[in-house]
Amino acid sequence: MNNQIYLAPSILSADLLKLEEQVNLVIENGADFIHVDVMDGHFVPNLTFGTNIVKALKRFVKIPIDVHLMITNPDKYIAEYAKAGADILTVHQEVSPHLHRTIQSIKENGMKAGVSINPSTSVSTLEYIIGDVDLILIMSVNPGFGGQTFIEKSIYKIQKVRGMLDKANSKAFLEVDGGINLETAKLVVKAGANVLVAGNSIFGQKNIPEATKNLKNIL
Ligand code: DX5
Ligand code: ZN
């Protein structure tokens, strides 16, 4: 496995009036991906962005845009996110009854395909698609809001998925999302994660450049 650890700041905690300025700050200070949390008010109890924000980001962001769809019926929107400029598109296993087909469709649309599971979902649901994906996203909080506390049991799930990926000889990214800060980052990396999403611990801080650098340095 390539040992590089990637940092993916989540704009969920950014100041939307200063979006361009704040996103540029994280990029200048070591961000590897820009994480966009799309919520529909059905699958998760919150509403956020759509393709318009991805389109706006694409005008100045040169690093990969990592879109996390927390929506029911994600298949319906795959082509639209590709057109908007998403580089990685992640869907939730819980709302994708035809997950294998969904993954193929994301790839056919020219994006990297990711699959995410909630804290209560077993890693065994990934067994038959693990060799097909470019990214697995382990939720370490219940999706819907930024600034929640990291769920410790996620460590065990990360270790298990790392084992599954290695066994499948897969180079897919193993991403963790929710409650990542300077302490939990170390734990999840040790467990085998290599992409860390961070919202509150970057955009929620007064000094965004310093917060980005601090997280990047411990990785
Ligand atoms: C939660 C989102 C996360 C969120 C993480 O539903 O998927 O990406 O922004 O926020 P923090 O890092 O604040 O827990
Ligand atoms: Zn997310």
What are the salient characteristics of this protein?
binds D-xylitol-5-phosphate; binds zinc ion; 8-stranded parallel β-sheet; 219 residues; 8 helices; alpha/beta
Based on secondary structure, the structural category is alpha/beta
- What composes the largest sheet? 8 strands, parallel
Span between N and C termini?
15 Å
**Helix fraction by DSSP (H/I, runs of at least 4):** 25-40%
Mean pLDDT: 97
Give the radius of gyration. 16 Å
Overall form: globular
Number of strands: 8
- Uncertain stretches of 5 or more adjacent residues: none
How are strands sequenced across the largest beta sheet?
1-8-7-6-5-4-3-2
